Amino acid sequence: MNRRLWLPLLALLTVSACRSVSVPSTTEEVPFIERQRLYAPGDYGSANWRIPALLCLDDGTLLAVNDKRKYNESDLPEDIDIVYRRSTDLGKTWSEPQTMIAGQGRGLGYGDPALVQCANGEVLCLFAGHNGYFQSTVAKPISVFLIHSSDRGRSWSDTVNLTSVLWDATSGYHGAFVASGNGLRLKHGRHAGRVLFAASLLRDGQYVSDNYVLYSDDNGRSWHRSQLAFSGGDESKLMELSDGRLLISVRRSGARGYNLSEDGGESWGEQGLWEEMATNACNGDMLRVNDTLILHSIPNSMQRERVSIFSSSDEGRSWHSPVSLFEGPSVYSSLTLLPDGTIGAFIEQNPSVACELWYYRFNLAWLRSQR
Questions:
Q1: Mean pLDDT score, 43-47
Q2: What is the pTM of this model?
Q3: What angle do CA 284, 67, 133 make, to 5 degrees?
């Protein structure tokens, strides 16, 4: 759950002032990057747009989900809608925004969507609702909701409240939310098909969060909470490694945190820090591109600016070669792998006080050319 942001007003790159910029190519050999603005302040009657989640489904459909922060930039308990757009041509064109769930006033809004596609094809979206994270109490909690789609994001079910799986009055916590962006579905091993989301739980009487994992082995019908994954963490992302272990990457100010699980996310080992990825405390994403490469998006700065792509060729043991996607003020990001092997990114950019949301598409040749 992001905090209220005070972002520096930096000069924008010339390219960011354009509605869209592209160097078209579909080959791996020729570097290319495309940029397209999906939402600007004032579009569709909203003052601000935040919290991107981007997922390429099994039929190649791109699903982009985010907060419509109608009146200001603030988090819950503000009045926020969750909206979505779909693309069937790798993000060249997009449907008009549709409302997944509409806020009904202050204290009755929804935000921070996170996506995963189950093995049976259903798409799950988890999100927070109603009270704010730091305002949450047993009597008036921030809630974690689930909504699902059986038609690849064209329509959505009623909500299911999952809050009680994560915490109750005896748990030592008084609030929880799931990190926006992407969840994870396991592809290998005895837990293949399991879907997981990283959650932050707020300690009683403190402004300190711990990370746990919410997981399901039946395509989202029932849910379980893991053991403690990271103490003193925040928004986190999960990755399945080639040897079957799970990696969690944890938001912190300074060196980013991590931990490993050997049992599909149920229990976790000794937490550590990536000193080579010292950044602003911000939400980012991890993406496996192939057997030898994992990417991580995060601001490459101690300020909320310069969203970049870090690379790991050793299964997340270390990170190197950060490449900037946007040099100016920029915050959250979500990554997905497209059917042609290119990479899609959905990014918050802040040319002024209010956020814009941009879609990027690029190939590995472009990443290599920028190092």
A1: 96
A2: 0.92
A3: 75
Averaged confidence pLDDT in the chain? 93
Q: Is the pLDDT of residue 229 over 50?
A: yes
Report the C-alpha gap between 153 and 2 in whole angstroms.
25
The closest alpha carbon to 366, from 32, 112, 113, belongs to 32
**Average pLDDT in the 105-113 region?**
98
CATH 1.10.10.10 is the classification of domain 14-369: no
